[in-house]
Amino acid sequence: MAPKLYKMDASPPARAAMMVCDVHNVPLEMVDVNLIEKEHLKPEYLKKNPLHTVPMFEDGDFILQDSHAILIYLTEVYGKDDSLYPKETKQRAFVNQKLFFNNSILFTRLRNIAYPAIMEGVRKPSEKQLNDIKEAYGFLEEFFSRTKYLATNHITIADIAAFATVSSLIYIVSLDSKKYPRTHTWLKEMEKQSYSQKYNAPGVTQIGGMLQNLLDL
C-alpha cells in the first residue's frame, strides 16, 4: 500500500511537503483534509494525529507530523542525492537553522494573522503583526546577502519550506522589490520551479484569495 500524505492545498506546510514529494517522485496517495470544515478534528484523524495539523505522512504503522520533520524524512528516504539536505555537518546545520527560522519566525508570523482571520473572523491585524512580517523580510534579505539561496548556494528543503510560507505572506504585506531585492529575486526563482508551479501556485492562490477577502489591510 502506498504511503499517504494528508494535506490541504491552502496550507503552506502542506504545500512544502507536496513539493518535496514531487521532487523525489515519492509514490503516494494525497488525501485532502478540510480544516475549515473541521475534518482535522474528527476522531479517526485525532487518533493518528493528536496535534490535528496538516500535513501528516502515513506509511503503514509509521505516522509523522510536522512538515519540517516530513521534509527531512522524505529527503533522506527518497532523495537520489543529498543536495536538498546535505550530509556535511556544517551545511546541514545551516539548513536546519533555516528550517527552524521558517517554523519559529516566518510561519508563526503568518499563522498569527491567518488563523484568526480564517477560523475566528478577526479581520484587522495589529500594526505590530504587520511590522513583524516586514522585520522577517529584513532577516531574509540579510541571509540572501550571504548565500544565493536560504542556507547554501543551491536550493535545499529550507528554501522549499520558506518559499511556501513567504509566497503566502506577500498577500498580507507585499514584498517591496526595491527594499528587499535579493528576497524578491529568490522568490521569483522559486516560482519558476516545476514543483512550485504544480503544487504551490494553486494553493497559494487559494489562501491569498481568502486572506484578501477576510482581512482589512
From TrEMBL:
Annotated source species: Streltzoviella insularis
Keywords, in A-Z order: Transferase
Subunit and partners: Homodimer.
GO molecular function: glutathione transferase activity
Residue span, GST C-terminal domain: 88-211
Record's protein name: Glutathione S-transferase 10
Domain GST N-terminal: 1-82
InterPro entries named in the record: Glutathione-S-Trfase_C-like (IPR010987), Glutathione-S-Trfase_C_sf (IPR036282), Glutathione_S-Trfase (IPR040079), Glutathione_S-Trfase_N (IPR004045), GST_C (IPR004046), Thioredoxin-like_sf (IPR036249)
GO biological process, alphabetically ordered: glutathione metabolic process
